[in-house]
# Entry
Amino acid sequence: MSALPSPEQKPAYVNRMFAAIAPRYDLLNRVMTFGLDQGWRRFGVRYVAAARHQAPLRALDVATGTGDFLPLLHAAMPEALVVGVDFSLPMMQAGLSKVFATAGQGAYVGGDALKLPFPDNSFDAVTTGFGMRNVADLLGALREMQRVTKPGGRLACLEVAQPRSALIRWSHRLYFNKVVPLLGAVLGGNSEAYTYLPQSAAQFPPPDHLRDLLKAAGWRHIRYRLLGLGAVAVHMAEK
Ligand SMILES: C[S@@+](CC[C@H](N)C(=O)[O-])C[C@H]1O[C@@H](n2cnc3c(N)ncnc32)[C@H](O)[C@@H]1O
# Structure
């Protein structure tokens, strides 16, 4: 049965879903990815932190959720203001300790990825992880991130992907469609959210298509790396 909402219903649906799973979100992520997810985020952070910086140094994590990117951005760019933006207050609240781990350099801001509450050219480094699947207008979100990035600044966008090898794809599909909803039910008390996850992943544009969308949104020098046996794509781009 489909757990996917219509585009009009998506923001309210996504907001409700993440509010429900917020307290268990980090635990489920670590278990589901066998503890690999922070390494994937670190890969993206290393790329954006190497951007040509212009004082005052600032980094932004869009659809930050429980803020897993914030301490990693702080470690890579200790002088930077590190901002996480999300429209789910319960997710950011569940991740308050991540802001404390930025030694006073971090903040959460409530806001919509489709209408970021920042002026043009504000950030040197922008990250987003596993959030783009959830926005109602993907191209609009890619454009917004481009708008708030300084010229010469960088983006790392992490999202789930379908492994290319047939055998791995088959095992991954089995794991994602059967085991993950079960883990969601047992550990998170919410199998609907973890049924939405593989279904929304199956609908998300494949990496080559996402690269084209990034180009259409005004990004340049776009490339991507597949990690986790091809189950995660990290797109890297510059403004
Ligand atoms: C799967 S979580 C990802 C959290 C985090 N980035 C990570 O790496 O684990 C997706 C997040 O996207 C947020 N989100 C979805 N649509 C959004 C929008 N239009 N504006 C802001 N946040 C949004 C949700 O509230 C949720 O916290």
Remarks:
- The chain is about 45% helix and 20% strand.
- The two ends are 41 Å apart (CA to CA).
- The longest helix spans residues 166-188.
